[in-house]
Amino acid sequence: MTSLDGFFDTRPEAPVRIDRWTILILFGTIAALELATALFREINWDEFHFLSLVFEYKRASLSLALQTFHVHLFSWLTLLPTDEIGAIVIARCLMWLLHLATLWFLFKTAENLVSIRGALWATVLYATLSFVMRSATSFRADPIITALLMGALFGLTRDRLPLRLLIFSALAVTFAGLISIKSVFYVPTTTMVATLQLVRIHDKVLLRNMVIALAIAVAAFASLFLGHSASLAQAGYQAGNTLTSAYNKQLVDSNLFYGARFLTYSLAVDALQWSVICVGIGLAVARTIINSGAERLRALTILSFASPLLCVIFYRNSFPYFYVFMMAPVAVVGALAADKLGSLSKILGAIPVIFVALAVGHAIPEFQRGQSAQQSLISAVHQIFPDPVPYIAQTGMVASYPHAGFLMSTWGIEEYRGRGEPVLLHAIEKERPLFVIVSGPALSAALEPGTVSIDADEGLLPADIAALKENYVRHWGPIWIAGKQLPATGGSEATFAIHIPGPYSVTADAPVEIDRRLVLPGDVVELAGGTHSYRGGVAALRRGRNLPVPAREPPTAIFTGF
């Protein structure tokens, strides 16, 4: 039996030679899997939302200042000769490069604090977590801010800390904060690393330089945020209220362990990685207890890298994509386990290889969740409506067209029901959206009753459900267009209301009367807003001049999960 004597020994580990071919194969496999994920994996609804904010900014209709700074970085996407899916795939390739940068920063940070073997373990551990494999290249804020913040931590953990490096790290934190306020969750780790360096170097010049870098960062944040706000449609006047609402919703009013089901899944699927992390945390705690002075501070600093794990307790949006952000620093703590576990047996020393082998097994089923259904839907929208028109959907899926209504995320639905205002009814009256994409539980329950099962507090308000049913008819699969379903009148005259004026194509089995004029099947009639008369059999009115119906079969599912 292998002895555990000295397992919690605080002596520095001996340098370990790592075969270059092993490293190349491990990271080459990881990089290839992540690139394939970026190119082929299903696009999540919030990736479409992230892109839609860019198009809103270019249309000068974006008014939300918080967490929208990325629109300046990706405005060039609106100029590409491709559809929304093509734009997101191209953006994902950039996310892939940022993820590779994150892996590099993680490796160098762990090497600065622990050892080369620990750095290898930490990097492979993080990269092969199932949720990281899924979401590391997604077009979201998380891959961007993770690269920036891990770059800042890498800069702060170096032996030499010239002023320019401190300014670089501070500005990286600034840009991360502008892109997402969740960047604040790295503050404990960043503070501990800075404190360790001050104690280690014990130089007043370093303290002065840190203060200068911090002042530059604060000034840069303020100026960039004010400039960004001023460039928006309504100058971001609601930023304070939005920040307060987000704080209350995400931290104060949220149920504890809101994302527990995702953590449970990760603990089961990534049991080996979590075991290594737990060993690392145990070693960090032991070294904190055993040591004193600077060594204790060093152990506390390494332990502080695990602080983002606390987010799972109180942060509402601890969804799978959040693990890309949360687990990058946590992996550094796992690096402590490398030399200890590697010295116990050759099998344990091969754990990084096992990580990658398990990741390959987890990744293969994910590629079955392709983009064909989403591509079919986007192509259909552009075929039916070649020019941009307003529409309603769960999210801004057709980013190049103006999205009416609101973002129907779980948080968005909760906020919407809390206000109690029929937002979609108002949007129909004011913005006159010409079609609806039934792509989410709330819209499915409203227009396709029985297809989904949701709680009463997860659906739309009755007034909005009635407005959708009254003003839209199915055209092709999940695409419903503005129109009316007119029942047979039995020889008498009936009335109907039009809220979206314009040309309407008539579908019927026989001629009918509209506003006491004879209308043949296939005719197009101009209908003004207001009440109109109708006489005849069953008929349907569709807004537009005999809009095309795609010949292919419509998709049955657009989004299948995270």
Automatic annotation (TrEMBL):
<feature type="transmembrane region" description="Helical">
    <location>
        <begin position="113"/>
        <end position="132"/>
    </location>
</feature>
<keyword id="KW-1133">Transmembrane helix</keyword>
<feature type="transmembrane region" description="Helical">
    <location>
        <begin position="271"/>
        <end position="290"/>
    </location>
</feature>
<feature type="transmembrane region" description="Helical">
    <location>
        <begin position="21"/>
        <end position="40"/>
    </location>
</feature>
<feature type="transmembrane region" description="Helical">
    <location>
        <begin position="87"/>
        <end position="107"/>
    </location>
</feature>
<keyword id="KW-0472">Membrane</keyword>
<keyword id="KW-0812">Transmembrane</keyword>
<feature type="transmembrane region" description="Helical">
    <location>
        <begin position="206"/>
        <end position="226"/>
    </location>
</feature>
<feature type="transmembrane region" description="Helical">
    <location>
        <begin position="347"/>
        <end position="364"/>
    </location>
</feature>
<feature type="transmembrane region" description="Helical">
    <location>
        <begin position="163"/>
        <end position="185"/>
    </location>
</feature>
<protein>
    <recommendedName>
        <fullName>Glycosyltransferase RgtA/B/C/D-like domain-containing protein</fullName>
    </recommendedName>
</protein>
<feature type="transmembrane region" description="Helical">
    <location>
        <begin position="297"/>
        <end position="315"/>
    </location>
</feature>
<feature type="transmembrane region" description="Helical">
    <location>
        <begin position="321"/>
        <end position="338"/>
    </location>
</feature>
